[in-house]
Amino acid sequence: MKNGNYLRKLSKMVVARKYVLAKHFEGAPKESDLKIVEEELPPLKDGEFLAEAVYLSVDPYMRAYAYKLPLGETMVGTQIAKITESKNKNFPAGKYVVGKFDWRTHTISTGDTGTNQGPASHPPYIVPDFGELPLSYALGVLGMPGTTAYFGFLEICQPKPGETVIITAAAGAVGSIVGQIAKIKGCRVIGVTGSNEKGQYLMDNFGFDGYVNYKCDDIEQQLEKVAPEGIDCYFDNVAGEISSKIIKYMKMFGRISVCGSISSYNTNVNTPPKVSCVQLHMLRKQLRMQGFQNYLFYNRSFEGINQNLQWVKEGKLKYTETVTQGFENMTKAFIEMLEGKNIGKAIVKV
Ligand SMILES: NC(=O)C1=CN([C@@H]2O[C@H](COP(=O)(O)OP(=O)(O)OC[C@H]3O[C@@H](n4cnc5c(N)ncnc54)[C@H](OP(=O)(O)O)[C@@H]3O)[C@@H](O)[C@H]2O)C=CC1
Ligand SMILES: CCCCCC(=O)/C=C/[C@H]1[C@H](O)CC(=O)[C@@H]1CCCCCCC(=O)O
C-alpha cells in the first residue's frame, strides 16, 4: 500500500471504547468488575451506519441481567448516539438514534438489532421530534422508563380518581413518572423512598401527597399515617420486605403492578431474600398482582411516548435527570444509581 493510501485509511479508522465484564458481580457491583477496552472498527459495509454515543443509560436491570453475560462480554445497555457516517438510507448521517448499542462509544449497526446478546429490546430508531425538549429525554420520560411507567401503571393498576396509589423507588426514573401520572388521573399519591430529602422532593416537585422513608424502622406507623384508609394501587419497583408491609395495608380488590425487584438484584438469583408471607392478605382482600416487562407493550411504545410528551409540554409531567459526565464514569454512575444517589433518570453524558 502506498504511504498516502495507508495514512488515508488510518485517518478513517475508528477506535471504539467499550466496557466488558472483568468479573461477575458479587453483591453490589464494584468498579473493578468492569474494564474499558478498545476495539478497532472495520469500514462500513452497505446497509450499515456508524453511531457515536452522546448519552448512555444506566439501569437497574443491568445488574440483574449481568450474570447471564460471559466474562469479557460488553455490558448491555441503551444509548442515544449521533450517526456520523451512513450507508443506510433509513439512518442518515447527522441524525440521532436510540439504540441498544451497549456500553460503547462507537457502534456499527445495520439498524436491525442490538450489538450484544442482551435482553429483548427495540431495534434502533431515530429520535422523534421533541421540539425544544432535550435529546436525553429519549432515555427517560420519552423512552423506556416513560413507557414502563405509563403502561405498567395504567394497564395493570387501572387507577380510578380518588384512589390511593403507593409507589416504591418513587424518586427514580420510573417511580417519579408513575406518581405524576397517578396525580394526572386524580389519585392520592404516596412515594416510598430511601431518604426524607427525596420524599420532600417528591412532594415539592412532583405533587406527591406524602411519603414513607423505608430506611426508618417505623414503616408500619408511617403507612398508617399516610394511608389511614388503605391503599388501592401499588406500583412495586423494589419487592422484598417493604412490599410485604405495603400489601398488608391494601384495600379490598387492590391492584399490584410488579415492575421491578431492585432489593434482590444484588443477591444470587438462586437464593432470593426471604420475606413475610403475603398470600393471606391477598386472599382476604382479593388482591390482583401482575408482573410485566416493558416489551409486553412494545407495539404501543409510541402511544406512551406521545402521551408523555404531551403531558411534559403541558407542564403536567415534570422530569428530572441525574447526569454523570464522561464515558469513563459509567461504572460510577451505575453503582451510584443502585445505591440510590440519583433523583429521576440516571444517565451518562459522554
Ligand atoms: N418491568 C420493566 O419492564 C422495567 C422495570 N424496571 C424496574 O423498575 C425499578 C426502577 O427502575 P428505574 O426507575 O430505572 O431506577 P431508579 O431511577 O428508581 O433507580 C433505582 C432506585 O432504586 C432504589 N433502591 C436501590 N436499592 C434499593 C433497595 N434495596 N430497596 C429499595 N429501594 C432501592 C434507590 O432509591 P432509594 O433512594 O429510594 O433507595 C434508587 O434510586 C427497578 O426495579 C427496575 O428493574 C425499570 C424499567 C423497566
Ligand atoms: C429480572 C430483571 C429485570 C427487572 C425488570 C427490569 O428492569 C426490566 C427492564 C427491561 C427494560 O424493558 C429494558 C430491558 O431490556 C429490560 C429487560 C431485562 C430482562 C432481564 C431478564 C433477566 C432474567 O431473566 O433473569
From TrEMBL:
Q: Name one Pfam family in it.
A: ADH_zinc_N
What CDD domains does the database record attribute to this sequence?
A: leukotriene_B4_DH_like
**Sorted alphabetically, which SMART domains does this protein's record hold?**
PKS_ER (SM00829)
Listed InterPro entries = ADH-like_C, ADH_N_2, ER, GroES-like_sf, MDR_fam, NAD(P)-bd_dom_sf, PTGR1
Where does the record place the Enoyl reductase (ER) domain? Answer: 30-348
Main site of residence?
cytoplasm
Give the E.C. number(s).
Answer: 1.3.1.48, 1.3.1.74
Q: Name one GO molecular function term.
A: 15-oxoprostaglandin 13-reductase [NAD(P)+] activity
Q: What chemistry does it catalyse, as a reaction equation?
A: 13,14-dihydro-15-oxo-prostaglandin E1 + NADP(+) = 15-oxoprostaglandin E1 + NADPH + H(+); 4-hydroxynonanal + NADP(+) = (E)-4-hydroxynon-2-enal + NADPH + H(+); 20-hydroxy-leukotriene B4 + NADP(+) = 12-oxo-20-hydroxy-leukotriene B4 + NADPH + H(+); decanal + NADP(+) = (2E)-decenal + NADPH + H(+)
Q: What class of enzyme is it?
A: oxidoreductase
Subcellular location per UniProt equals:
Cytoplasm
A single Gene Ontology CC term: cytoplasm
* One GO BP: prostaglandin metabolic process
Q: Which UniProt keywords apply?
A: Acetylation, Cytoplasm, Fatty acid metabolism, Hydroxylation, Lipid metabolism, NADP, Oxidoreductase, Phosphoprotein, Prostaglandin metabolism
| Family statement drawn from the similarity comment of this UniProt entry | Belongs to the NADP-dependent oxidoreductase L4BD family.
Complexes and interactors:
Monomer or homodimer.
Name assigned to this protein: Prostaglandin reductase 1
What is the organism of origin for this protein? Ignelater luminosus
